[in-house]
């Protein structure tokens, strides 16, 4: 077990983790505080909340790929430092925001600055990690991210209950500042990649071109994007699923925590499994997730009861298998994408996945309104299974058999 984490002897890996913990936590710590400000203090409704969601997510799809060009042409450690420093500054601006429009504008700006961080981190991981450790390193970082998604909003809500709103925002700004300071030892620790003239001149387009040139990467991206679209057909409706089983608000809250905990375990497990054969791990995880989702939805359609314990175990399994799709995808990218375009490729994949994730809840909500949430959940499960089967069939056209022998 300890040999699997021998990479932590490298000080760069330790500083990467030290940076990731506060950086990922800062993504979620003030989420509840800002929502509380909008809803309970200013009395805003669905339109403003929809605007908040768009401002929070859209920059990762629209701006991230452009900023990633600068990361590839420069040095990822410096980009990580500036991203966290910029996030600290923009978070502090919320303290002086006079109205809703200003808050939404600051959230938009903050997400734009933050969209620089993930591609830079992926580029840094690729440059400082040996091929044998890529699975474990990516699994550990994804586990940190999943933990932050669970702990962050809850901790933010707890802080909001015991301290003023401004203090919560200030605490989050300090977290981003700590992340920036943890990035300083990484600045200059990985030499800039050598780029060809074509890679330099292509700019943001090169992030898309790397997928069109590699059929296996394109297949993996389409698979991941399609699977996340299917997940988000019903993900935002899980509270209604809890209602169907008579579990109430407490059951729903525990299900969110259970899904997050499953994501942490799944990320760590995927890190151990994905090192050798990332695509088969993705396909197996999708099959388990899809079939489990279909079974739960059919159970709900039949009106059968389900206790809290099995419901939590099922949500943990779904959360775990979702993480087991993302970690192998990143390993595959870091093995097949040239270092000179890694940040752009990472930002492109994040842009595609974010775009479909924004579209899916609208369709899922419409399906739930018309036919019920169990139908939306069932369709999501069916789609994931079909995608897994299609990807399995498509591997031979992408040259998977030969690439596996080359440790792709």
Automatic annotation (TrEMBL):
Lipoprotein as UniProt keyword: no
UniProt-annotated location(s): Cell membrane
Coarse class of the protein's main subcellular location: membrane
Listed GO CC annotations: plasma membrane
Residue stretches spanning the membrane: 21-42, 48-71, 92-113, 165-187, 216-234, 240-269, 281-302, 308-329, 341-363, 369-392
Alphabetical keyword list: Cell membrane, Membrane, Transmembrane, Transmembrane helix
Highest taxon above the source species: Bacteria
Protein name: MFS transporter
Membrane topology label: Multi-pass membrane protein
Molecular function GO terms recorded: transmembrane transporter activity
InterPro entries xrefs: MFS, MFS_trans_sf
Pfam family name, one: MFS_1
Keyword Transmembrane helix listed: yes
